[in-house]
Amino acid sequence: MEALKGKKILVGITGGIAVYKTASLIRRLTYDYDCEVQVVMTDHAQEFMTPLTFETFTDRPVLTSMWESGQKISTRHIDCVSWADMLLIVPATANIVGKTAAGISDDLLSTMILASEPEKCYFALAMNTRMYQNPFFQKNREALLAAGYSIIEPETGPLASRKEGEGKGRLADEKIILQAINDYFVFRKKLKGKKVLISGGPTREFIDDIRFISNPSTGKMGIALAQAAFQAGASVTLVLGPTQISPSGAFETVRVNTAEEMYKELLSCFDTADIVIMAAAIEDIKPEKRSGKIKKRAIPNEIQLSKTQDILKEMGKRKKDYQRLVGFSVETEHEEASSLQKLKEKNLDFIIVNNPLKKGAAFGHDTNQCVILGKEGFRLETPLMSKQELAKKIISLLAD
Ligand SMILES: Cc1cc2nc3c(=O)[nH]c(=O)nc-3n(C[C@H](O)[C@H](O)[C@H](O)COP(=O)(O)O)c2cc1C
């Protein structure tokens, strides 16, 4: 837990039954790890416990309101967020997750969360199982993940409402929360000073002005990788094909449409990148000719196709010793054998194999399951997990 020592942590406490557990967690942070902790409580959190306990463990007044008569507080909500190395919301109610997902800032804590970079906010969820399973809550939870916030999932066990027995919703164990925030501080230094180039999303290969050949990629994997690399301290450029999703994060995003545009953008940044991760589903076929809008009566029975440029292969040829090149491969049969062949042919360091026929994997899903293959027999099979978790795994692997 070395990385945690002496860090400045803003702990946001919301109105859940697990508030009492936060007292012990804060005591560990201040007494055992010399952290400076500033507590912010919502009105509802104060229904469960008064600020006194937290003030005793942190040696600081607990903040509870945007407004305090007679005292100069001005833009304290912004100053506190800038001061903090991280924001830890514990316990995080369904309400604070929903407010964050909707961009609501109607009290001190939600305003601070909105004023902070998503990358430095962790939500340790705790609520009744039925609230956790609620589809609107799940949508909000996924929206937070997609925007780059981190979530410490609740555990399964006896619920506060004893009549209901066991279920998922209990606040994660103190050790798990401490480990997660320690990992955050380890992770954010992993790629300091490195330049990372990432591609994501599909491409569109136009038949005429309004029709095109494409694939179901949404760009979620590429965006998650860019967020993870940025969180690990790298300077990141994401080259993103056409997708409805707007990446959030203070990294550079270049939008492109066609495989040719993807080629130009990526190759212009390639030489200065330390790590290149090609998560885009670049179309490998394109119509030979693009015309103006074809009238319905003139639609041809056949379209002549040709191959687009193989960007990964070109990168493999240009790769220098200090560069790491990672490809993704979408295969539905003999996945590993064909991917290993690609790894060799294209001079890659790693290839990440995903099969869209597997439940929850590859195109469009919020989750992915894959096998990571490397040179010299490296093989790591990852279970089904969120694309954000997988992205962090891949970034850690490359950094180590
Ligand atoms: C006894 C009791 C326990 C509660 N526990 C939780 C909980 O664990 N998680 C949760 O999301 N809401 C819980 N609630 C409901 C929240 O307090 C309520 O949604 C409130 O509006 C949250 O406000 P806040 O997020 O601003 O603190 C509980 C309410 C009561 C009365």
Description:
The protein is an alpha/beta fold. The chain has 14 helices and 19 strands. The strands form five sheets. The chain has an eight-stranded mixed beta sheet, sandwiched between helices. It has a five-stranded parallel beta sheet with strand order 2-1-3-4-5, sandwiched between helices. Helix 1 (19-32) runs parallel beside helix 3 (52-58), helix 5 (94-102) crosses helix 8 (135-146) and helix 10 packs across helix 14 (387-399). The structure holds flavin mononucleotide (FMN). Residues 14-18, 42, 44-45, 93-96, 126-127, 131 line the site of flavin mononucleotide.
Query: What is the average of the pLDDT values?
Result: 93
Spatial gap, N to C terminus? 18 Å
Domain module count = 2
List the uncertain runs.
none
Percent of residues in beta strands: 15-25%
The neighbouring-strand order within the major sheet is 12-11-8-13-16-17-18-19
What share of the residues lie within helices? 25-40%
Q: Estimate the global geometry from the Cα principal axes.
A: elongated
**CATH first level of the largest domain:** Alpha Beta
Largest sheet: 8 strands, mixed
Q: Report the C-alpha radius of gyration, rounded.
A: 24 Å
In CATH terms, what is the architecture of the largest domain?
3-Layer(aba) Sandwich
User: How many DSSP H or I helices?
Assistant: 14
Q: For the record, what is the CATH homologous superfamily label of the largest domain? A: CoaB-like
The counted number of beta strands is 19
Q: List ligands, each type once.
A: flavin mononucleotide
Given helix and strand content, the structural type is alpha/beta
CATH topology label of the largest domain:
Rossmann fold
